[in-house]
Amino acid sequence: MKRRHLTLVGPFWPYRGGIAHFMQGMEANLIESGCVVEAVTFSRQYPDALFPGESQYTSAPPPEMRARRLLDTLNPISWFGCARTIRRREAELVVFSYWHPFLAPALGTLARRMRSQGIRVVCVVHNALPHERKRGDRLLARFALQACDGLVVMSDSVRKDVESLGLHVPIRTTPHPTYDLFGEGMPVADARAALGFEASRPVLLFFGFIRRYKGLHVLLEAMPMVLRRIPNVLLVVAGEFYADEEALRLKAEPLGDAVRFVASYIPDDKVPHYFCAANVVVQPYVSATQSGVAQIAFHFGRPVITTDVGGLAEIVPDDEAGLVVPPENPEALADAIIRYFDEGMEARLAEGVGREREKYSWDRLFEAIEDVAGKVKS
Q1: Which of 89, 87, 105, 107 is nearest to 97 (CA)?
Q2: Phi then psi for 15, rounded to 5 degrees?
Q3: Would you give the end-to-end CA distance of the chain in angstroms?
Q4: Which whole-number Å values give the CA distances from 291 to 3, 16, 124, 136, 285, in the listed order?
Q5: pLDDT tens digits, residue range 162-199?
Q6: What is the mean pLDDT of residues 107-122?
């Protein structure tokens, strides 16, 4: 991207989660490229009553450069105040993330105010439509996304959802960048010792917020078949429950110590331990768009066993950087896990991960943003 004065709008500290990680990575890499970057975040993102997890906020200390907390999703006065502040700071381009219809009124209004002042607006669309859909989601998505000069998506699945909205906005597809904000990896033995995992056990990692669409129930159904062939395998489930906790724990109970739950949000400084301790990351999603978890796995050189839904197979080429199986098929999932260990695939697929990782630079995302920012809406 050419050197610009940009404003990024989305979740930054003190908010946590995958989109916050994405925004943090984008900010750091834009600054490294020579851009002047200012960040704006929410004074209130979601009302606590609507948030499904334990907390919206990170316990990490504040960064040296803090985002301005200007945007209250429930207070329209703040939307206009945020627009005035961005205009006064003389940004050439505003880039925001969109992932949920609850944000649409605030972000759509902000985008319109920016464009009325001659400031270009580009949206990086993580999900055009939510995984659990409700009436009105499409209308809200149209309101937010139609207001932009251009849209950037990171999978063909999201592009199809955007195109289904009937918008007249330029769209560019580019791969999801690899997350590089969690630091370097560490030896497997050191990671396992820090977490208290046995050094010799094969370890599967299911990582991230636990929701129905992520398919943990399918993986738990596959585990008895895996255990019959690999009796010492360990499945580590690291992430906060957003749904089905009681049902999933009951399903895991007969598996004994083959399943270990770390049922809390994993802080950034502990993320390397979990990925480096694993032999393979398993993503048994029932539905998906794209996945930041796969990109964290790639950053740490870990192959991924995933399902052929959304854009996951675009990220993980089958038998090159991981294995791809049909969704909601415990037998196929179990077979892939067994093959991975029986056939000694780890080293070969890890080499493939290294080759794939080179495709997922932040520069490609910035080129896509620059491209759609320069186009004229039809």
Answers
A1: 107
A2: -85, 160
A3: 24
A4: 29, 16, 14, 25, 10
A5: 999 999 999 999 988 988 788 889 999 999 999 999 99
A6: 96
